[in-house]
Amino acid sequence: MKKLFAVIGDPIGHSMSPFMHNDLFSFYKMDAYYHPFQVKLENLEAAVKGFKAIDVAGLNVTVPHKSSIIPFLDGIDELAREIGAVNTVVNEDGKLVGYNTDGPGFLEGIKLYVSSLNNKNVLIIGAGGAARAIYFTFLKNGPESVDVCNRTFEKAQKLVEESRTSVSTKAFSLEEASQRLPEYDIIVQTTAIGMYPNVFDQPLSPSNVKKDALVCDIIYNPLDTKFLIVAKKNGAKVQNGIDMFVYQGALAFEKWTGQLPDVERMKQNVLKQLGGTKC
Ligand code: NAP
After folding, report:
1. What separation in Å is there between the alpha carbon of 1 and the centre of ligand 1?
2. Which of 150, 215, 158, 157 is nearest to 186 (CA)?
3. Which of 19, 109, 165, 182 is most deeply buried (CB count within 10 A of its CB)?
4. Is the pLDDT at 277 greater than 80, yes or no?
5. Cα gap 78→100, rounded to integer Å
6. Which residue has a Cα nearest atom 43 of ligand 1?
7. In this structure, are strands 32-38 and 237-239 parallel, antiparallel, or unpaired?
8. Helices in 69-128 by DSSP H: which ranges?
9. Model pTM score
10. Candidates 137, 158, 191, 223: which one to mutate for ligand 1, based on the most atoms within 8 Å of Cβ?
11. How many whole angstroms from 199 Cα to the centroid of ligand 1?
């Protein structure tokens, strides 16, 4: 029987995941189908029970359910527990187990530009859900330091206090972080600032970045945010959010099927859907 995979969120119409995963099922000749379901928060528990009852093979979970779904799962892996969010669910012998591939997906993506995190000083801008996933993943992968700055300083401070790590980690306001930008080898913009239609906005100006620093923006609409344009103009290497999106999907696909998919194929498909070219 055809296996069912699904993505749940609210709203969900914009999701590119169905297109990306259905193309892979067809490419690898797998008898499977991926469908988007809009699930209201008040119906989340019933929806998860329903998916379990019909033996769903796997789920992706998106906004606003990444944290709320945790109590309704049968288990959750260590990284997802630390992050406090699940974006991938695997049906393991009838038990629904939650994982987070957002952080690992981001890290896989930057391997295209950075071969090792040894001696690297990292700054994360933002302290929301995506920032948490990237922060805890960095901490497990041995950089020199990982700092966080956020509009609401207390949220960055809380994140740093939650970490139990030997890696150096500090919280800053956006203003303090702006002064310190030349210290960082990798800077990751994780807020929604600069996303379409507010394409002229940026959380801070990366005009004083270290030459050859890697500056990432996890936004992919537009592909070239104002933040990346300014960073590039000032000598940085830049990466938009497409690689993170594609790799989080590739790692989810691998968890469901055991097959690490053709990531370049996925990327070209997503770019085709967005109607653009990479930064
Ligand atoms: P979230 O949990 O709501 O966090 C939002 C963050 O943005 C917070 O740090 C918030 O600061 C900050 N922020 C909001 N408005 C701001 C403003 N006017 N000025 C400065 N900072 C502001 O959101 P999220 O789930 O982390 O998602 C953030 C972005 O990442 C979205 O654009 C999403 O599409 C993107 N994303 C991309 C991928 C990918 O695969 N590429 C994956 C996940 C998410 P405060 O704490 O001060 O409110």
Report:
1. 39
2. 215
3. 109
4. no
5. 9
6. 130
7. unpaired
8. 78-83, 102-110
9. 0.95
10. 191
11. 15
SS3 of residue 272 by DSSP: helix
Say whether pLDDT at 252 is over 70: yes
pLDDT (mean) for 225-246: 98
Q: Is the CB of 90 under 6 A from ligand 1?
A: no
Which tokens is 122 given? 């990292």
Residue 279 has pLDDT above 60, yes or no: no
Q: What are phi and psi for residue 66, nearest 5 degrees?
A: -60, -35
Residue 100 has φ and ψ, to the nearest 5°, of -125, 115
Confidence of residue 131 (pLDDT cuts 50, 70, 90): very high
* Contact partners, residue 93, CB within 8 Å, separation at least 6: none
**Ligand 1 atom having least distance to the Cα of 195:** 32
Task: Choose among 34, 40, 38: nearest CA to 57.
Answer: 34
In 3-state terms, what secondary structure has residue 54? coil
Q: CA 107, CA 141: separation in Å to the nearest integer?
A: 9
Alpha-carbon gap, residue 143 to 220, rounded angstroms:
25
Q: What values do phi and psi take at 68, rounded to 5?
A: -65, -25
> Apex CA 224: angle with CA 223 and CA 226, to 5°?
140
40 is catalytic: no
Query: Backbone dihedral region of 139: left (phi > 0), alpha (psi from -120 to 50 degrees) or beta?
Result: alpha
Q: At residue 276, does pLDDT exceed 80?
A: no
Sign of CA dihedral 46, 50, 52, 58: negative
Q: How many CB atoms lie within 10 A of CB 48?
A: 23
Residue 97: what pLDDT? 98
Cα-Cα-Cα-Cα torsion 74, 78, 79, 84, nearest 10 degrees, comes to: 60
